[in-house]
TrEMBL record, chain A:
It is found in: Nucleus. Belongs to the bHLH protein family. The keyword Nucleus applies. Residues 10-51 form the IBH1-like N-terminal domain. It holds the Pfam family IBH1_N. InterPro entries: bHLH_AtIBH1-like, HLH_DNA-bd_sf, IBH1-like, IBH1_N. GO terms for cellular component: nucleus. This is Transcription factor IBH1. One of its GO terms (molecular function) is transcription cis-regulatory region binding. The keyword RNA-binding does not apply. Keywords: Nucleus, Transcription, Transcription regulation. GO terms for biological process: regulation of DNA-templated transcription. Its main location: nucleus.
TrEMBL record, chain B:
Keywords: Coiled coil, Growth regulation, Transcription, Transcription regulation. One of its GO terms (biological process) is regulation of DNA-templated transcription. It comes from Carex littledalei. Belongs to the bHLH protein family. This is Transcription factor ILI6. Residues 5-59 form the BHLH domain. InterPro entries: bHLH_dom, HLH_DNA-bd_sf, PRE.
Amino acid sequence: MENLLSNASPHSETLIEERGKRIKLAAEVGLARSSGGRLWARALRRRLHRQRKLPQQTCIAKNSTPPLMKEVPLVADVTEEKEEVQDRMRALQRLVPGGEEMEVERLFEETADYIEALQEQVGVMRALACLLDGIESTDGDKL
Amino acid sequence: MSSWRSRSRQSNTSRISDEQINDLVSKLQMLLPETRTRNNDRVSSAKVLQETCNYIKNLHREVDDLSERLAELLETTDMSSSQAAIIRSLFM
């Protein structure tokens, strides 16, 4: 994290991009660690672990909940409207980490929790940006 | 009610009724104030799910944008070592 905050590096577009990616990753790791018991958080930790972005000592559930349904179950009567609902549910499954392994009821619970966690994440990052903005403007000669 | 609940937890259940879906969707709607309507109009399940997906995508996008912005701010901000220490501790 040291070089994240140093000003000694040369100004360049790619450096900032690189830093942005690391910040985003830090945000993801924070998110993954924030709600230990949640399925979406476990799925996120698994993903980060696979990508080797998460240090080993973080607890990874060995036996995650076995997938109850790989696909959202078919509704009793398939009409156009029901098709649409199914499509939307599948889209939701893809957005929520681990969603594809969840049954419908659990998916909805996890979605609500995931959204709350994301909102908090955004709140923290916004506050941080304001803080940095504040530091910058009190320095005087910046516009 | 309890019978369908226990059935839905088994992996060999392959069908779920519209009623159950609508029920769950309206519960989701209650949990997410963003999807509630100002009047009490009935919103379709598909619409609620769509709004939910859009909302999540927006949040993802915000995280991306804020990450970029923070990266830029960190680049241009001249801060003391104690300020840097505070910020570093927030990341850990």
